[in-house]
Sequence to fold (328 residues):
Amino acid sequence: MPHLSNATSSASANLLRRFSLLAATVTFFYLSFTFTMPVTITPVPHACISAAPLPMSILRCLSSHPVTLRHHLPRRRFASLAAVRQDTTIWTPTPISSIENAAESLFDIRIDLSNSPDLAASHTVPGQYLQLRLPDVEKPSFLAIASPPALAASSGTFEFLVKSVAGSTAELLCGLKKGDVVELGQVMGNGFNIDKINPPEDYPTVLIFATGSGISPIRSLIESGFGADKRFDVRLYYGARNLRRMAYQDRFKEWESSGVKIVPVLSQPDDSWTGESGYVQGAFARAKQIHSPEGNGVVLCGQRQMIEEVTSILVADGVSSEKILLNF
Fold:
């Protein structure tokens, strides 16, 4: 009997080892299948993701040898644009040489560039603009350069027409005084590509439209000279709320002597006003006088609605959209 007992014990031990090996093999293939098969996961905040439960027969065999399961799910890293974007603007400290009232809520600001000749020389085309930043003020302002490029080259000066808007960087700028230092970024933009409406004999009509402080780069264009005196019809439709809000009136005679006819348009005129009223697009629609659409050039700067409506009128009358110039 002892011999039979030993044989029985040996057989039992063999059977247990075989069963354990079989259980381990089944578990291995089960886990391999479970973790390699494609799984569609619906993202749920703070949700736990686990594999399907193992059969009880296998769990019993593994109860004394627990297995730690780990899911290696890919992690997505998100970074905001603000975090990765780098400010590549080169800022040049420059002093203010003067600040004067140009009209109601509008200021003529001159910046001294005598110590920054490279910056002054980079203004080459009317209609270009730059960023202006104040010390301790994070948000800069984009400003069109009102003076012609020749002024920067000859006297080292940039001039800007700035509208003071409550709570803005522009309001702080208009409150500064001579000698205060501001920072200027690089000159940007292609400006008004006048080559598209040259030579003057091929484009005898040039229609210019400006509203509010949008007259700023238009001044740069007119005073740079674009052959206005060699063209048959050059008109500037300049819109403002009233005469008190219309800048550069002291320059009108000079502009007209260069060949530009000024058509002031007031949206809220005084009772004594006898000129054009309403909006510039309305004043132009009433006048029209487009002699030859293919010989028309157009320059626009100001409110978006005005730009869109004037463009629509002109294109409908046959003016090529390629001959309608913007400075941005």
Summary: The mean pLDDT is 82. The CA atoms of residues 102 and 248 lie 7 Å apart. The chain has ten helices and twelve strands.
